[in-house]
Structure formats: structure tokens, C-alpha cells
Amino acid sequence: MPTIGVAVAIPEPWATQLQDYRAGVGDTTAAMIPTHITLVPPTDVDDDLSVVEDHLVQTAGKVEPFDVHLRGTGTFRPVSPVVFVSVVEGISQCEQLAEAVRRGPLDVELDYPYHPHVTVAHHLTDDRLDRAFKELAAFECQFTVADFHLYVHDHELGWQPSRDFALSGS
Question: Whole-structure pTM over 0.90, yes or no?
């Protein structure tokens, strides 16, 4: 039974910049997790991904591309030891896309309310989380989300992109 995730990939050069930062602050999971905004968290699915892919094709066909602006940092502490780069524009579009994707075969319950963000430090000591929070406080980038991606987890390689889904709604 594969474990999948669905996410908006952060484009270059920011994807590598944030992933390198995450590794540099000591987050050992960085090399196995592409820089992203989660739409569907890790989810176990049946071996046949065609039903999931069909659902994602249909969803992408109903959603228009949208702009995202990332700026500054936030944290989920004390609930969860996470520091993230904040989504300051495109929040509602990410929420709507995530809600649409999490229907049908991907109707999963979330452990926490959905909050679009880009994780830059996870499960680290408080001093390293504080460091990430401060050092990336001035981070900023803008881009257009024109697609989202299905990722499949590989125990040795981490999260691997499996298929892209172009947003083509009107």
C-alpha cells in the first residue's frame, strides 16, 4: 500500500534555497522532502493510483492558476515543533484547492486545521527552531501556482514526484 502526498511545489530558486536552509539548520529530513505547500498530508492509498490520479485530473481542471506570496516566518509551537515560511497571499486559494483535492478517494481527516505554509524546520531543539524563526524572518518570494503534484513516498529516497496536474479551470 503506497503512501502518497499532494502538494504545491515551491519553484526555483527558492525551493533549493529553503531546502538547503532546512538541512543547514540540522533538519535531517530535508534531503527527502521537496520544498512544498501541503494539500494532502501523507496518506496510505490502495495499490492502484489510477483512481486518485483521475480525481486529481478532474480537480485540477476546475481550478484556475493563482498567485502565492511567501513572506516571513511562523511557528506551530507549542502544539508542534515546526517553524515555517508564511503564505501571505494565496491563502484562500490554497485552502480551496486543498479542500477540493481532499474529496473522493482522498477524503482524509486532518490532525489539525489546514494552514498553508512551507516548513523550514521540524522536530529540532528549541534553540534551532528559534534560529530558523529569526534567520528567515525576512524571507520573501512570489510565484504563480500553475500546477500541483502527486508524491509517492519511497523508504530510501523519500518523497518522489509521481505526476503533475496543471490547473486549467476557468
Answer: yes
